[in-house]
Amino acid sequence: MRDIEEMLNRQVVEMKxxxxxxxxDLVSEMKDAISLGVGEPDFDTPWHIRDEGIYSLExxxxxxxxxxxxxxxxxxIAAYMKRTQGLDYAPASEILVTVGGSEGIDLMLRAMINKxxxxxxxxxxxxxxxxxxxxxxxxxxxxxxxxxxxxxxxLTAEALEAAITPRTKVLVLPFPNNPTGAVMERHDLEAVAExxxxxxxxxLSDEIYSALNYTxxxxxxxxxxxxxxxxxxxxxxxxxxxxxxxxxxxWACGPAAIIRQMTKIHQFAIMCAPTTSQYxxxxxxxxxxxxxxxxxxxxxxxxxxxxxxxxxxxxxxxxPLGAFYVFPCIKGFGMTSEEFAEKLLAEEKVAIVPGTxxxxxxxxxxxxxxxxxxxxxxxALGRLERxxxxxx
Length: 392
What we know:
- The chain has helices at residues 4-7, 10-13, 19-28, 47-58, 71-85, 100-112, 131-137, 157-163, 186-199, 256-269, 275-287, 289-312, 337-348, 374-391; strands spanning 34-35, 95-98, 120-125, 141-146, 168-173, 202-206, 232-237, 250-253, 325-326, 350-351, 353-354, 366-369.
- It is α/β, with parallel strands linked by helices and 392 residues long.
- It has two domains: 4-45 and 290-387, Alpha-Beta Complex (Aspartate Aminotransferase, domain 1); 50-288, Aspartate Aminotransferase, domain 2 (3-Layer(aba) Sandwich), CATH 3.40.640.
- The strands form three sheets. A seven-stranded mixed beta sheet has the order 2-8-7-6-5-3-4, with helices on both faces. A three-stranded antiparallel beta sheet has the order 9-12-11.
- Strand 3 (120-125), helix 7 (131-137) and strand 4 (141-146) form a beta-alpha-beta unit.
- Helix 4 runs antiparallel to helix 11 (275-287) and helix 12 (289-312) packs parallel to helix 14 (374-391).
- It is globular and about 60 Å long.
């Protein structure tokens, strides 16, 4: 029998594991450690949503749904997209219910990229860890656009233009951004959209944090701009806004021709999203707006508290206006991001994620999640302050 290691897919073997999970695993084994590393709401799923999931089980609604998801849920997703973004999507042909937003990302890239053709996917970084490996697994060529602190980690039209080649096919637009908390406002998106239309590109717009926006104006989807709906797949979901991470529920909205092929892959790989979760999702979208707003206000309070404490300890950090992360700069400490994070964990038992977990352009930065209670944030940031004073 041949060595099993020789039989494995080399592309998968050579893929780096998530840098986020490594620190999460370390802190789970350390007594009295505090983690500010995981991007997961600390709120329980609201009771009325849980009740709907329980009720669906009591009624024996435990069978497969349509591959695309419950029609009732797709209708609620269409209504949500209409009232929040002014976008009209046909529930029967332009909406797919996915297993979390992550599946939607994977499906869109696999539906769009031809293996072996050298087709390029533009990925602004720092950004969510899945875009690059999903591009590679789909057979595409990831092309990284380094986002800059001086631009508040927003994608500029100039940076986008400079990265485009004749092989460019898809742009990933990850805003509000994980890990930086950066947002793209309407004027930012309009400049980027002009470049996209001129070069005839397609867009994967990951809007999982769209409800967690702290600007004076609500989130704007690039799909709502002129000429962009027909070339954009919007991925969103329930995990962040509704505190439903473990329910594994997301959705994708886009042109019927793309959604049809995404559904085909989903059909063979997954069959359908969890039925119980889908019934809970109907309730979330139908009656959950007040819950989302209450959580958003709480995150905003924590955001302002964390920024104030970072300022007090002299850690420079631009003001993030979305998601639930801050991305302070630690370039003045003579340590790499990973060294800083490892020393902080060893000396003060506080886990935060090095910026390089989100791409090389994250070097010199750290991601701190404020999806934790004020008491946990206060204690963790006090420990961070001691560390900073000792190593400055």
